[in-house]
């Protein structure tokens, strides 16, 4: 079909020019915004990945350094101990083996110590391995110590496969000299590189992460993944290692020497050790995300341009088409549409200017009249409206005349010739207006819907009667108009005996007045929300027995009358089950609290025993050695030097004992919450490289906490810091301790990535579960405020002991009566 248009008008040309300029401006703005958003998203993802690898490499490096220092302390202890041996025992294999066993850093086969004499021959091993007489002269660590007269300190050997265990190892070693400075040999400990590789594999949180430990020469010691394939590989000339040597920044991009894929690397050099830890993350995911964003952006721009072109074409055609005979087209369209909708029903036509109404024969037949028995007037229709329906029907007709609604559709009752009432469906439409927009003519149709209304009522009764729960239809006056079989059975009434009774009779006498008031508020709409109409209360059977029920109410219209549908559910069994569950939950919570107390008491006892027995003995030994060290300073220089070595070993042992005691129960906890939190924060900041700050609103003595509360809050604080290390990827942590009228408050705030929507639904989120349980036992509140990318704020508040006691006393003094229905 083709359409002919009039020549282009000035208004059309102006409209087309403005439309094209507007489309071009919008397209340019949208394209710029899309590409800016794509670039910002890529930069944000890259920065997040860089921060993630830097935080990860810091934690891995700290763990590796702690493991190596543990073995180094054992090597130093042996080297110092052998200096103190008499000359005749320095060559005793049994004595040396005993010293080695006593300084063995661990009981597992992953660690062992071997002593090699000055000729490069094995003397003994801490694990009784057959090394006596075995030559170690070809090992780099022996050559490094034998060729120099100076103490090189801890030497990290090249990665290799051990001769005895055939494991992939790298060796830590120290030079051993006599008290006179004579070279006695080398004390060495092969480190199982597979142990570090397993630790790296366990630490990887996705397949795109690689973790590697390399020596200064670029040789691979441990890696995850592909540890066995990459062990002892020389990466000195690889692009990644060359970038590490040439860049001062802690992060850089380079191709992987193994897969050739581009990686984002972060590194950390271990302090005083010729080792480097690398953490790499594949940038392929970042690049793929960028490509996907660009493809989506391109597709969106193409779609936008296509839509704009089509829209412009349609707008121009529509503008020209609307210039011809709009009013005629609109009237014809409305007439045809209404004629199609009203076929087969009674039709009426109302001339508003003359107030003349034309009623079709079918319209009169629906009400039982012959064609000449009813006058064609507006009053003939209005006088037959049901009194309850007349106000809203006339209001809708007037709204349609005023142009507030295009079509008036009403269901109402009309009086028939015999005096009975019939339900009808009336549709009305204004088809003619004057120049001022006032309605001049209205037409409509009338449909008999009495059978449909009756069928709907029967169907509703069947549905209610088939419901398994008791259900009632209650009129505005409180009279029950219908009750299903379940209602009669539950309340103990014979069939249909409830119909016609007042619903208040099903309530206990003490609750009837309040129930009537509540029902009245619901009927007039004062209670509108569905949850407000669902409430537990007691009901009474015909025999006078009471039982708990839950009632759900909903308003409904039946034959123009407002009724309330009440759905009733007997909750006796559920209430009993709930009480049993609450009792069981309370018992489990008390058991959990008891176990926590036993655990803390045992840790306190062990820490106290270590402090009182081992700590006191070490202190006494240190004092004796200090005295010996002071007295031999001038009289016995050589003995003075040996005593100094022994004193160093004692000090190192005391520090280890202190660390164990603090792990079991920090000594600072005995001084109060503030010293303990400050001690933990300094230790956390030193180990994880995360900046920490502590804010207190009131001084420590004013916290008002007892020992149990102090210990529980400190454990919650420790668990919060552990969650930050594991999940938050934060760089700053702020702790706030305060007390107000409601009790004590602690807030832990970080600037990390925040909680994801699914984090709290994880099945194994025991950290948050443990914190919540401790807070519940203290009678406090636990709140987490977080959103992705905006950090996390963990807030706890607990009432003080006297506040909790006052609250419990007030609860005990209250007299509760059975709630009525309000």
Textual characterization of the structure:
This protein is an alpha+beta fold and 822 residues long. The protein is built from 20 helices and 26 strands. Strands 1, 2, 3, 4, 5 and 6 form a 6-stranded antiparallel sheet that branches. A hairpin with a 4-residue loop joins β7 and β8 (220-224). It is elongated and about 145 Å long.
Number of helices: 20
Rounded average pLDDT = 77
**Shape verdict:** elongated
Structural class: alpha+beta
The span between the termini is 69 Å
Strand count: 26
What's the helical proportion of residues? Answer: 40-55%
Q: Could you give a short description of this structure?
A:
This protein has 822 residues and is an alpha+beta fold.
Topology summary:
Layout: H1 10-83, H2 93-102, E1 114-117, E2 122-125, H3 140-146, E3 155-156, E4 160-161, E5 168-177, E6 183-192, H4 193-203, E7 209-215, E8 220-224, H5 227-230, H6 239-246, E9 251-255, E10 262-269, E11 275-282, H7 284-321, H8 326-341, E12 346-351, E13 356-359, H9 361-366, H10 378-382, H11 390-401, E14 407-415, E15 421-433, E16 439-448, H12 450-466, E17 471-475, E18 480-483, H13 485-491, H14 512-523, E19 534-540, E20 546-558, E21 561-570, H15 572-635, H16 637-664, H17 673-688, E22 691-696, H18 707-728, E23 732-740, E24 743-750, H19 766-777, E25 781-786, E26 792-798, H20 801-813
Parallel strand pairs: 22-23
Antiparallel strand pairs: 1-2, 1-6, 3-5, 4-5, 5-6, 7-8, 7-11, 9-10, 10-11, 12-13, 12-16, 14-15, 15-16, 17-18, 17-21, 19-20, 20-21, 23-24, 24-26, 25-26
Helix pairs in contact: 1-7, 1-16, 15-16, 17-18, 18-19
